[in-house]
Design goal:
This is IrrE N-terminal-like domain-containing protein. Pfam families: Peptidase_M78 (PF06114). 46% of the residues lie in helices and 21% in strands. The protein is of the alpha+beta class. The strands form two sheets. Strands 5-4-8-7-6 form a five-stranded antiparallel β-sheet. It has a three-stranded mixed β-sheet with strand order 1-3-2. The chain binds zinc ion. The site of zinc ion (ZN) has 4 residues, from helix 3 and helix 5.
């Protein structure tokens, strides 16, 4: 329910403000934006109507962060949605849900779910779709991962990279029971690390990095990064 409402909010915003250039993204809520040296990806200075975006990230990533901050504003100003959220969640859980919903809305703004559905119908949910969708639709890989996990239940998408290999981002759909910590190191003998080292796609069982419980994993490496789609095992 909440997710459907957030998607609709984002879709209406996209339609009202298309094409969503960074300027138009911010202007739709009467805000401006600035690239600045801040410790988090993005911040909303509500008093000044100004969105701050962290410097040193790719333009696509900055656009995603901007859309995420715009979603904070839209949700904050939607009383019905807010009261629904407060009814269901409190404390840390509320904060975590809010962040996930802002990510979901940002993805819907930049990568319409109709497009994702069409791709999934043709190709099925595979890890390779994370970099492929990002490339085809000129969005960040985070956006692609969020959009893909939004279309399926019981899945988790992971993007890992860097040296030592770490989890850079993860997005889980409803009902997937766990998630890796951000920046969790991927052990050298983990299927994700081996996929990256060999360049060979992997399909089989593997736990999340630093976890025990095995899931089904589809992994794919490209350009120094490795992408994974985890699913719960059928009982
Ligand atoms: Zn946020």
């Amino acid at each position: 329910m909440l997710r459907a409402k957030v998607r609709e909010l984002a879709r209406d915003y996209r339609k009202a403000n298309a094409p969503l250039t960074p300027e138009r993204l911010a202007k739709g809520i009467g805000a401006s934006f600035e690239i600045a040296p801040i410790p988090t990806d993005g911040m909303f200075d509500f008093d000044r109507g100004r969105i701050l975006i962290a410097e040193g990230q790719s333009l696509k990533r900055q656009r995603f962060t901007l859309a995420h901050e715009v979603m904070h504003y839209l949700i904050r100003h939607d009383e019905n949605l807010l009261s629904d959220m407060h009814e269901e969640y409190a404390g840390d859980e509320f904060e975590e849900t809010l962040e996930a919903l802002c990510n979901l809305g940002a993805a819907e703004m930049l990568l319409p779910s109709e497009n994702v559905k069409a791709t999934l119908a043709k190709k099925g949910l595979r890890a390779k779709l994370i970099p492929d969708l990002a490339e085809t639709h000129q969005v960040s890989e985070e956006v692609a991962a969020i959009a893909l996990t939004d279309q399926a239940a019981h899945v988790l998408a992971v993007i890992a990279g860097g040296r030592p290999l770490k989890v850079l981002f993860s997005s889980r759909s409803e009902f997937f029971p766990a998630r890796p910590a951000k920046n969790a190191e991927v052990p050298k003998d983990h299927a994700l690390a081996l996929t990256l080292a060999t360049g060979l796609p992997f399909q089989g069982e593997a736990p999340l990095p630093k976890h025990q419980r095995p899931f089904l994993l589809d992994a794919y490496a490209k350009g120094g990064r490795v992408y994974g789609i985890y699913r719960t095992k059928p009982n």
